[in-house]
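go over this chain:
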Amino acid sequence: MSVPLDDLGEAHGFDVIVDEVSSLDAKAKSVILKSGATLEGFDKIIIAMGHHKVQIKGMKEHTLSICGAPEEAVELHTRLDALIQKGGGKLAFGFGGNPKDRSSVRGGPAFEVMFNVHNYLKKRKLRDKFELTFFAPMQRPGEKMEEKAHVMMDKMLGMTNIDKKIGKKIVSFESDGIIFEDGEKLVSDLTMFISAGKGHNILESSKLPLSEAGYVVTNEYNEVEGFEGIYAIGDSAMLLGENDWKAKQGHVAEVMARNVAHNILNPDDKLSYIDHLNILCVMDIGNGAAFVYRSNTSAKMIPLPIIGHWMKKGWGWYCKNSKLGRIPRLPGL
């Protein structure tokens, strides 16, 4: 699913400038672009630049991600098809961590790709020609989803004959595999890896208050205190809250964006994003899905055979068309 920015701008009445930010001076409310243009004179600036990835030696050269440039996802498909033409191979799927901010881990998409590839190969009657391995540096990957979900995920790995290598720090990536801190090498013909996030590099010189992981520190209204008219949302902002399961997800970013728009227009009736902090996703596995939800008061993982896959595809259609104003948004979404 993709939404052209020009179409989005036309639907909602804002101008689109396609350029790269070279620097941001929050005090001066000045943004310098790679083209040399300067954006200044604005009363409000909302920082929604996403984040950068924690770098590991060889990651750029020897891995592909579905949480990066769109071209990487296309290349992943191309290289998988090449291995199919070759007759088989060893595939590795994993994600990384950031001990400075656990909310920046992207685990769900890695599981989705892995299980979808498993079912793709199974449909083509080639699953026995491939070795699939899941890897991650933490001892209990997926535990944010809560204990029962973690156990269910482990069972799914066993049922689909997917090996795992967990609990060991990733030292480097090579053209033919992954090296771990204990010296062991996981051999791989194709490695899909989603690195954990860290604050965007541009923010380092912005003079804004940053967390240890480099994210902008805001209050619950996404205001940067001490910087009037500056807001940070989504992956650019540090998530507040003491719970260790919180995660940076798209629906939380949307709540932040909606709240900031409301708060700018209604300064005496501000909305907080704190009560909306939860984990919510439909994890597509190719022949079905799993509904995952966790909050301070509830945690569940519900299998959705067959229908779950189509629910996920349907959500993509709804998401695109509702954002373009072609259909109404569902209440609360």
User: Anything to note?
Assistant: The first helix runs from residue 5 to 12.
